[in-house]
Write a sequence for this structure.
């Protein structure tokens, strides 16, 4: 087998296509997979054919496919991945959702956390303090919303909706907990304020 030229070693003619050469190489490897010397000879014959084809290409005698000339490019090209279409949210929702910065988030947390703490400790004079705290919370929410896009009407609307929703949720939660007859020390008004301040924090932080 050593006296054969590379084409004869692979069992192909000099006019064989690249696909035929590759197929012949694979057949020979499968046939002689237990003989390491023959496998080395097959690899050497294949390399010799490739070099011969490159030489012929430089002489303009044949056109060598790109996969022979630039085999490394095949590894770089990955098959196009099937894109899964994800339904987008409505445009009006995208315009309303905001991603707050760290400073904005800390400011809103600080404001409504302080108001919540004052609400919890306003046990003895809650009738006079809670309306004041609620008014401060409303003003703070309007301010925090309005400074984002300078749209006062939108800020007032979101604040009023948050106020009504917070009072409603707080009252409903108080009914479920059995306030004020349960063991909880909070009153119905205090719980409603706390829920409202929580909604105000969400609105001022994540809406615009």
């Amino acid at each position: 087998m050593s006296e054969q030229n590379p084409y004869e070693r692979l069992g192909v003619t000099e006019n064989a296509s690249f696909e035929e050469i590759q197929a012949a190489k694979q057949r020979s490897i499968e046939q002689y997979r237990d003989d390491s010397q023959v496998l080395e000879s097959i690899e050497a014959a294949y390399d010799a054919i490739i070099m011969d084809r490159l030489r012929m290409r430089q002489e303009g005698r044949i056109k060598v496919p790109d996969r022979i000339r630039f085999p490394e490019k095949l590894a770089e090209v990955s098959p196009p991945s099937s894109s899964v279409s994800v339904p987008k949210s409505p445009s009006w929702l995208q315009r309303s959702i905001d991603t707050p910065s760290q400073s904005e988030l800390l400011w809103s947390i600080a404001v409504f956390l302080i108001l919540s703490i004052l609400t919890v400790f306003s046990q003895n004079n809650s009738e006079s303090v809670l309306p004041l705290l609620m008014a401060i919370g409303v003003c703070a929410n309007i301010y925090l919303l309005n400074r984002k896009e300078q749209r006062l009407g939108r800020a007032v609307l979101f604040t009023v909706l948050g106020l009504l929703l917070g009072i409603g949720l707080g009252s409903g939660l108080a009914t479920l907990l059995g306030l004020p007859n349960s063991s909880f020390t909070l009153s119905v008004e205090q719980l409603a304020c706390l829920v409202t301040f929580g909604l105000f924090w969400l609105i001022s932080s994540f809406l615009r």
Residues 152-177 form the longest helix (26 residues). The radius of gyration is 39 Å.
